[in-house]
Amino acid sequence: MADHNYWEGKRVLVTGADGFVGSHLTERLVNERAKVSIFLRGTSVNGTFQYSMKNISKQMQSRIQNIICGDLGSADSVELIRKNNPEVIFHLAANAYVPFSFEHPLEVMEANLLATLNVLEAAKKIKTINRIVVTSSSEIYGTAQYAPMDEKHPLNPSSPYAASKLAADRYSFSYWNTYGLPIAIIRPFNTYGPRHTYDVVPLFIKLSLKGEPLTVHGDGKQSRDFTFVLDMVDAFLIMGSNNKAIGETVNFGTGKDVTILELAKMIKEISGSDSQILFDDTRIAEVDRLCCDSGKAASLFGWKAKVDIENGLRQNIEWCRKHWFSNL
Questions:
Q1: Is 34 within 8 Å of 5 (Cβ atoms)?
Q2: Cα–Cα distance between 147 and 291 in angstroms, integer?
Q3: Secondary structure in 3-state letters for the chain
């Protein structure tokens, strides 16, 4: 499992640190006494960059070493990262909302592929780099041809988002193979938990707590392997510290998939909601099934998901009550 002593004093850069998983990872790294820098996407207003750190508490912000602000899709980011001189890079920054890619494929390609290439180019210029953990996605597999799905499963991305992540995944592999960079590629399966604001789990929780209908697309039999965020943070720490991860692509998930209809019913029950469940047309580029085979993670690192879907949803719902609906 993760060697927590490994992180003390390590110079670590996290891209996408204000995102859902990135903020949890940043918090853990700071608590492990790493010297953490973060790369945030910013907007220039009157010559000054403005950026968000809504998912990083003020107490945590005070313990961050450096804040780098820019556009990872721009070549300027290469020099910004090089100057930061990290020993470990966790690259999580992405445009990760799949439906957005239907209307904005070029923008998503820039955010997911070009940004990754800039991170890799920067890493080539850092002599003391020990690890670059690149975040891929289970979406690159497309619908399961067999289940559970191991790393040898065919790669059939069904959306522009998935295609951009697959391209970044394989480019990262090529930089390990060609340049000998210490790259580790992590393929998370459907991470959920506190601070998540998009995708089906937070959407259903929000609607349930408001007593509004939950809309299921198609017949609701499409399924996902939902993995709790703290389990996934453990996976990132392992991929960043264990030498067995270098040059490897590794799936992380629970090995159990849940249909979207089952998910809606579970969230209703746990939250005590009387929301109706309604059905709508099937979404375009829908993936019918994702179910992880994490056998490689278990054999290489001894990793196994600890939080089952029911306990994870309970924690997620309680967090949402406190932070979104404190009056309920």
A1: no
A2: 6
A3: CCCHHHHCCCEEEEECCCCHHHHHHHHHHHHCCCEEEEEEECEEECCEEECCCCCCCHHHHCCCCEEEEECCCCCHHHHHHHHHCCCEEEECCCCCCHHHHHHCHHHHHHHHHHHHHHHHHHHHCCCCCCEEEEECCHHHHCCCCCCCECCCCCCCCCCHHHHHHHHHHHHHHHHHHHHCCCEEEEEECCEECCCCCCCHHHHHHHHHHHCCCEEEECCCCCEECCEEHHHHHHHHHHHHHCHHHCCCEEEECCCCCEEHHHHHHHHHHHHCCCCCEEEECCCCCCCCECCECCHHHHHHHCCCCCCCHHHHHHHHHHHHHHHCCCCC
pLDDT, tens digit (0-9, with 9 covering 90-100), for 131-176: 999 999 999 999 999 999 999 999 999 999 999 999 999 999 999 9
Pairing of strands 88-91, 35-41: unpaired
Structure confidence by residue, pLDDT tens digits, 268-299: 999 999 999 999 999 999 999 999 999 999 99
Per CATH, the number for 7-190+228-255+291-306 is: 3.40.50.720
| Residue 162 near residue 98, CB atoms below 8 Å | yes
Q: Which two tokens stand for residue 164?
A: 């951009």
Domains in the chain: boundaries? 7-190+228-255+291-306
Structure token digits, residue 259: 């249909």
